[in-house]
Design brief:
This protein is an all-alpha fold. Helix content is 81%, strand content 0%. The chain has one domain.
Amino acid sequence: MQQMFLRQQKYIFYLLSLYTLGWGFTSYKTVFLSLILGTVISLFLLWSLVRKVEKFGRAVAQGKKARSLGTFSRLAAAVLAAAIAIEYPQYFSIIPVTIGLMTSYTVIIIDFLLHKNK
């Protein structure tokens, strides 16, 4: 699980570097800044999910009662990203923020497809 997360984190950092270059060198600053915001929160959500799945797995293996995977906290982080985009429309746009929030799921799917045969 940790190796998979590190691989996915690396891919997301590559995307973030591309978004940063796009923000710095194009006239689409709002779009790229929104993608950066959504992707950073998406990375945080991925990290949080991996951490909670590991705790969940340890609790199940030890026969202890397992807590939830933190759906509410992840939903709250996504709402925070949307609230920031709505509050500061001169810097952010809601559609690219939403696309950025979905980045980790896209990376997970691509990572699975690349490594399913290994």
